[in-house]
Amino acid sequence: MGYFKEYDPAAIEKKWQKHWEETGTLNAESSHDKPKFYPLIEFPYPSGQGLHVGHPRSNTAMDIIARKRRMEGYNVLFPIGWDAFGLPTENFAIKNGIHPAVVTKKNVDHFREQLKRLGFSFDYSREVNTTDPAYYKWTQWIFLKLWEKGLAYKSEMPINWCTSCKVGLANEEVVGGVCERCGGEVIRKVKSQWMLKITSYAQKLIDGLEDVNFIEKVSTQQRNWIGRSEGAEVDFALTTGDKLRVYTTRPDTLFGATYMVISPEHPLVEKHRALLTNYEEVAAYKEAAARKSDFERTELNKDKTGVELKGIRAVNPLTGTEIPVWISDYVLMGYGTGAIMAVPAHDDRDWAFAKKFGLPIIEVVAGGDVQNAAFTDIQTGTLVNSGFLNGLSVKDAKKAIIDYLEEKGLGERKVNFKLRDWVFSRQRYWGEPIPMVSCPCCGWVPLPYDQLPLKLPEVEKYEPTDDGESPLAAMTDWVNTACPKCGGPARRETDTMPQWAGSSWYFLRYIDPHNDKALADPEELKYWLPVDWYNGGMEHTTLHLLYSRFWHRFLYDIGVVPTKEPYMKRTSHGMILGSNGEKMSKSRGNVVNPDDVVDELGADSFRLYEMFMGAFDQAIPWQTDGARGCRRFLDRVWKLASMLNDGNGISKDLAYDINVCVKKVSEDYEQMKYNTAIAAMMTLVNTMYQKGSVSRDELGVLLQLLNPVAPHITEEMNEMCHIGPELVRKPWPQVDEKALVKDTVEIAVQINGKVRCRVNVPSDLTRESADAYFAGCEEVKRLLEGKTPKKQIYVPGRLLNIVL
RNA sequence: GCUGAAGUGGUGGAAUGGCAGACACCGGGGACUUAAAAUCCCCUGCUUUCACCGGCGUGCGGGUUCGAGUCCCGCCUUCAGCACCA
After folding, report:
1. CA angle, A363 then A367 then A370, to 5°
2. A416: Cβ under 7 Å from strand B?
3. Residue A332: which of A188, A205, A541, A546 has the closest Cα?
4. Would the pLDDT of A1 be above 50?
5. pTM of the model
6. A690 CB closer than 7 A to any strand B atom
7. Is the pLDDT of residue A34 over 50?
8. Which nucleotides on strand B sit less than 7 A from a protein beta carbon?
9. Beta-carbon contacts of residue A290 (< 8 Å; ≥ 6 apart)
10. Is the CB of A418 under 7 A from strand B?
């Protein structure tokens, strides 16, 4: 067999990409005959920088699964689209005076071209683009449905305001007190904002995690973010005559409440300002607290501050004791009732506050030393100084006290969540217009469904104004409209939706992307949902993933989609770092451009390296030498074409190695252990080189195993060597279990746990017959000369350990 | 502070409680070549030794076990997420 030709990645990659595009081989089939498989990657934001080496890591990983599933006989929908609304595009447009839609088109075209060069098996016929009016028509439609069900509302409230982007942010978008996107300072600002009531789905979002198969850290992070806690609300009588309601998770410690703390913004303060003998001091504290940004509030959280409300006292409902009431910014208006009962003996924050201001500390759960530290253990303590609760465990006391409070009408069981409603307004141009009209007579009126999509108007300027209004506000022609209800003059909403809107349901649109009667056909939804496997970044766990689960569950509740949960399985990739181990960024100068790598080594080598570089879920530094090593491996694979022999089938001396490889690769792909799968194929290739030649069938198996990672070179070799039909149409290889059985196996012989020699033993040697066998074994006898073994342990196929 | 993950050669990393360092990268040697590159073959944890043979080795200190990178207890360090949520 002759040597064929040089390995030329550029030529063969182009050839096969063209072939797949022309034949539509990789597109989903419209027939519903086969079992379906729906893998998903997070659709990219088409930034001006182009593709990052991080994108192909997730894409290749899911492409491998998609390609393997096709060979396993599934109808696979592996889609791609563009999450194209967003600030960077808008900022670029502002700076250069180009319409964001023009910028978006250019960026999308560039991204598509870059992705196509990498040979992903996306179904490009189903592309979606969140900025396409035919798409955002349905984003707006979902918003109107949410409004209809009372889940969208407009509210004056303090929001997180990025001073640099001049835009309101959801809690999820504030990281360490600064804007997630630009790092600008975030302050609190009262603004009228559209809100989505995700809080009413808090419990459903927790419960739904039971029905899906997310990696543990994703489920945990979602649960923590939703932050469910169980406790009670309790009323304390005030000397003013009204009641102060608090939320506590430790109602069992009620006897130990020695003072109360309310948030500086609590309405009670202003209500009773006349009674306060130190109102000036209180007002000064309030003002100081209001001025602090969230960042400052958290930075200073070690040192407690506060002011007593002199002139107001509260009464402990159980002991009848009068206790003082303080204001402090460690109590947040936005959680619970904005007021707490302080039990310094059993809460760290209350303890620190009490120590600072000399407030009494009364132990009600025995087990610690409450003068030195709060005792917060709820497992071991026993109630003391607590009347009828004395002697009970914390758990029993909780139940007893809540029953008592409910019976006496002093309080009740209560579940709280940390999750806040979703701030859905952005004072920006490049987003979906919110299809609502404000009418002086009718209030907020939804746009009728037949007027969707409400398109973005053409404007001259894209900058938000300094007072925080959207650029759309300046478009009087567009803003002034007739009320859909009464026909009178009215104004359109000028805020737009956040970037998370379009990405909350895009996986539904892929299923039926060109439908103009519904967001997708119910029959199609029934066949394709849920997404079987969704891979993405950990950074989206509390943002995109939670939001889209919320929308999907809502759509389920109103009968639009057939499944409660959108995604069956969620996995996560690690970041690719610069070669210096730091995050890749322009300013650090450690950015690797995928195009350069493809130019030098080819797409297959690039894909291979991204999968080989290390454990898939871990952050890994990029090493160009490592990528070159992967190219070297493909060169070696290519040369196998010149090592073909005349043999048929799998020869005896390769059967074992090939089947070990088939088994390892098949299992490892499923567990995303791509690095060890590739290592197994490298080992097999090394073995083939040792042997000096391979048969067509042997090479065929290797090519097929490698195909999901390196689709171009493998198809080319398959064709060039006349091995069989296109690899995409061949069934995935099965393990021949018989070939995995060897006659003898080398084991290690240890003395007291140290390896002394290796011997070959029959592979079917059992523990029971081991002693007899080794008694006659020359090597073992030699090792034991003059020594008496106390014990022998034989682990079949592994080792023999002799204890002296 | 809380939660989670992780610490293994010069580097990236492998190892259902069973031969630590698979597979690569880097480095070294050899073959081929006028030469270089590429390619092929060999070596490559540290340490003693001419060599054989040894000794030591998975962040640190204990423990369980015939046997621990892996399990348990106590620390240290790094990374990620959350951060006054009562």
Report:
1. 40
2. yes
3. A188
4. no
5. 0.92
6. yes
7. yes
8. 3-5, 11-16, 18-20, 22-26, 38-41, 54-55, 66-68, 79-86
9. A188, A264, A265
10. yes
